[in-house]
Amino acid sequence: MNDLSHQVFLSSAAAQTSAAVEIPYYQPVGNECALFELAYQRQLPLLIKGPTGCGKTRFVAHMAAKLARPLITVACHDDLTAADLVGRHLIGDGETLWSDGPLTRAVRQGGICYLDEIVEARKDTTVVLHPLTDDRRILPIERTGEELAAPKEFMLVVSYNPGYQNLLKNLKPSTRQRFLAIQFDYPNAELEQSILMKEAGIDLTLATRLVDIAQRFRQLKQHDLDEAASTRLLVYAANLIAAGCPVIEACAAALVEPLTDDLDTITALMEVVKLHFDSGKLSSKTP
Ligand SMILES: Nc1ncnc2c1ncn2[C@@H]1O[C@H](COP(=O)(O)OP(=O)(O)OP(=O)(O)O)[C@@H](O)[C@H]1O
Ligand SMILES: [Mg+2]
């Protein structure tokens, strides 16, 4: 691939007019694109697991654009109620009006509903997904008595980061087993380099060094760090450098400081950075 400049024309009724939509760039890492398409065709819901900044959200945005479906994203949190997802009555001007929540909107529009960090939502909230994610594919709206049948274009995608999880924050098996699941991780070195080159416009030499540093940091994860340096942080570092920031400063701000507050760990990580760049051969102004 890639679809960086590929355009798709929306033809669905929901899109009303034909509008050119750019497909967000996504570098496939395995068979995830094919699996997503099959899940969509067969009307199966999908769960994406993976560490922060590894491309989950980008992947869903890419696939939604590729399939020309509207994408409705909800960031889940522990105050999220079923009404926040499904909808509620609003009172205004002496009238009570029903207002669809994002899940209901997605079902009506035949869109892709993406529930990010699903484990954060309370269990009584996730139960509302059950009739929608088994073969019934219906959304009962208790408060209006309506029962919406999901059109074949509707798809539910949820994601979470298993690293943040504790025992209390796990999906019930009866929720979990309604989804196909894909495990994401950081891409291999070669793919990650090409992501940095595309996302920030840096050259291969710099991309290789940044990815090398991240890989070193990732080896330290079990020892000193809760979370490894993500592809997202690498893209930040690459962007800073592409904008003219000296490489060591860029790595400190984008790759080291976001990972930890522990001064000894920061010093150790900065040593790794300097080892990669102190040879001084790399210009700080990479195009
Ligand atoms: N495979 C990929 N192709 C293209 N860009 C990628 C890819 N993986 C990561 N990225 C880059 O990393 C950034 C972060 O990815 P994204 O926001 O999708 O992470 P995430 O897995 O959703 O993280 P979080 O769990 O924190 O929400 C993207 O904005 C993009 O620049
Ligand atoms: Mg995300």
TrEMBL record:
It holds the Pfam family AAA_5. Residues 192-275 form the CbbQ/NirQ/NorQ C-terminal domain. Residues 45-179 form the ATPase dynein-related AAA domain. Transmembrane segments: none annotated. InterPro entries: ATPase_dyneun-rel_AAA (IPR011704), CbbQ/NirQ/NorQ/GpvN (IPR050764), CbbQ_C (IPR013615), P-loop_NTPase (IPR027417). Belongs to the CbbQ/NirQ/NorQ/GpvN family. This is CbbQ/NirQ/NorQ/GpvN family protein.
